[in-house]
Each structure stands twice: as structure tokens, then as C-alpha cells.
Amino acid sequence: MLSLMLSPMMAQFLHEGDTIAIISPSSATDTATINGGIRTLERWGFHTVVGRNALRDYHGFAGTIEERKADLLWALRNPQVKAIMCSRGGDGAVHLLCELPLGVFRKYPKLLIGFSDITALLSAEACVGNIGIHGSMCHAINTYEGNDTVSQALRRMMTGDLPEYHVAPHPLNHSGKAEGILVGGNMSVLHGLAGSEYDPLRLPNIILFVEDTGEGMTKVDRMLHNIEVRGLMSHVKGIIIGQFTNYKKVPNIFPDMNYMFHEYLRRYGIPVCYNFPVGHAHLRNFPMLVGSRATLEVSGEGVTLTFRPSPSY
């Protein structure tokens, strides 16, 4: 069970009437999805504009690389656009990173919103010191007309009303307190950035959160040990294990994904929490302020995560 304590803070956040651009940097989407996002965002008091190529379909992607890059650059460069919401995830955001140097994200800081495949773009933003929101996109915010707890938490975070998350204890949690830059998201997407300039695990003093869907335990095991073999676990001061869903368990190895993580992470002596409500199920996908400073406290009473929006590397 998660409870929220809210405290307003100031940063690259939105005000009523601000313009949000909707783009599709990953897989192809449809009109109903984008229109649903528009309805909710405008109900919340924002103005919306949609990228020219947001409804393209090119081999399952939302347009060619050039078309998707053009929409991202349009949204970044447009001074009227104050935030960018991605219509959906899927695959393909990394194509844009191959075309855009980090300096573009540094030059045009915008509040980017999305998760899953959008982890690639959120990681680029974090690497240059910008903040972004790992959170629900067009379809999800419209599912309950934007009135569910997760959507309302996203709405408040977009305006700088930052949560303090309180999560119930888990038997595998490792107690402790950590402070650092919050980075993470979809674990397989993060794995695909390994060793690049867009890899947020290169940053010192990070709190890492991970989630995934459809990735088997042995694949996640390899992803986890890739962090270790690259010598980057020393950068990680705390770990948040989110929701890992739709995977096949391996008989006679570990009961579930949490036990697999625990087997390896317990020896590091850093705070680790399990079953945090972030992942691919909308009502278990509370927004996370990627690139912000954060404090993670894990104890026998539960878990507390707080955000401070300005990073200092």
C-alpha cells in the first residue's frame, strides 16, 4: 500500500494554460490514444499541440527515424512548448539518440513525460542535468478520465507538487538511507544504453529504480550483472525494485524476480526496497522524477522516497 504526502516545490514545472506537445518517438499509435491524452490534459487545464508525424506508421514505428526526430526537435525547440508527453512506448526511441548529441537535450530543457521505451530519452535528459517524469502516457491517463490516484499524482508532479512516497515494508528489503540522483526505468532499455554517453549509470551517486515486463529471469540476471561487470555498482547508493510482470518463472531456481535480485544485491550493504509501485500496470505506476535529487529511506516500518528537483553532479 502506498500513501502520499505532498509538498509544492519549484523547478521546470508547468502552470495552468501551458502548452504540452504530444509526440510519438517510439512505436506507432492511433488517433484514439492521442485524442484520449488530449482530452485529459486539456481537462487538467493545459493546452496541447500534436507533432506532425505523431500518427505515422513505418514498419511499426511512428514514422521514419527522420520523421520522429523532426517531431522531437520541433517540440524541444518550440519556445511555446513547456513539456512533452510521449503518446506511447514500444520500441524505437534509441534510434533518435543515435541521431541527437547530448548537447541538444542540454540546450533545450523541457519536462519530458513517458515510460517504458521512453526510458531512453529520460536517461539522456538525466545525463545533462535535466529532470523528466517517468510516468503514464496518453492511453493510461485517459483510461479513468484522469481521475485515478496515479493520474492525479502525475498531474500534481507536472506542476511541481512533489510527492513523498510511503510504501509498506517487504520481507526482502534491506534497510538504510541513501541520497543521490534518481535514474532508471525500464531495465532492458537501460541495458541497451550501456557504455554510451546516454547511460545514466555513469553518473556518480545515483538511486536506481528498475521495472520491466515480459523479460525472463535469466535475461534480467544478465542485465543486472552487466552493471556489476562494468564496475558501476559503486555509483549506486540505493535501489528500488519496481514491478516485473509477464515473465516465466524458472523452476527450482528462485520463487520470483524479487528473490533473484535479493540473492545478488544483499551483499552490497545499500538500501534496497522491493515491490515499489512503478511499472507497466497503470495503477501500479506512480510517477518518478528522473534526474532529481532524491532520498530513499528503508526500514522495518516501510519505505520513504522524497524528491528535490535540482540535481548537483
Q: Classify the secondary structure makeup into a structural class.
A: alpha/beta
The low-confidence runs, each spanning 5 or more residues with pLDDT under 50, are 4-11
- Kindly state the percentage of residues in helix: 25-40%
Separate helix tally:
10
Run of helices and strands = EEHEHEHHEHEHHEEHEHEHEEEE
On the 0 to 100 scale, the average pLDDT is 94
Characterize the biggest β-sheet: 8 strands, mixed
Q: Shape, please? A: globular
**What is the first-to-last residue Cα distance?**
33 Å
Main sheet: which strands, in order across? 1-7-14-13-8-9-10-11
> What share of residues are in beta strands?
25-35%
Find the count of extended strands (DSSP E, 2+ residues).
14
Please tell me how large the radius of gyration is. 18 Å
Overview of this protein structure:
The chain is an alpha/beta fold and 313 residues long. It has helices at 31-43, 65-77, 93-97, 102-107, 119-127, 138-143, 149-158, 187-192, 217-229, 257-265, and strands at 2-8, 19-23, 47-50, 81-86, 111-114, 132-134, 161-167, 176-186, 206-213, 236-245, 272-273, 288-290, 293-299, 302-308. The strands form two sheets. The chain has an eight-stranded mixed β-sheet, with helices on both faces. A six-stranded mixed β-sheet has the order 3-2-4-5-6-12, with helices on both faces. Helix 8 (187-192) links the parallel strand 8 and strand 9. The longest helix has 13 residues, at 31-43. It is globular, with a radius of gyration of 18 Å. The two termini are 33 Å apart. The model is unreliable at 4-11 (pLDDT under 50).
